[in-house]
What does this fold into?
Amino acid sequence: MVNQPLVSIVIPVYTGADFLRECIDSALAQTCENIEIIVINDGSKDKSKDICQLYENQYKNFVFIDQENQGVSSARNAGIKEASGEYTMFIDSDDYIDSDMVEKLY
It folds into this structure.
């Protein structure tokens, strides 16, 4: 898609390590290439933070925020604050999306 605006995908995480990789991989696999992925770890008690740090070191369009547990609304707001995109969408950390979701929504 020519001249497509940046889309920010915000993923709040709280103790979601069992599903997190599939969620992040589905966001990274988008047919729309002009995306940024912002993951907010909201004080997880499992390996979610470690998983996020691996992605942060591997992808330039991946932003990782680590905060003390403040709830999903606070995590989403932190993602919105960090977002650079013209459009912002949310995915729960235990979900995954089809590879053309962002393109179709745009």
Observations:
- The first strand starts at residue 7 and ends at 13.
- The two ends are 10 Å apart (CA to CA).
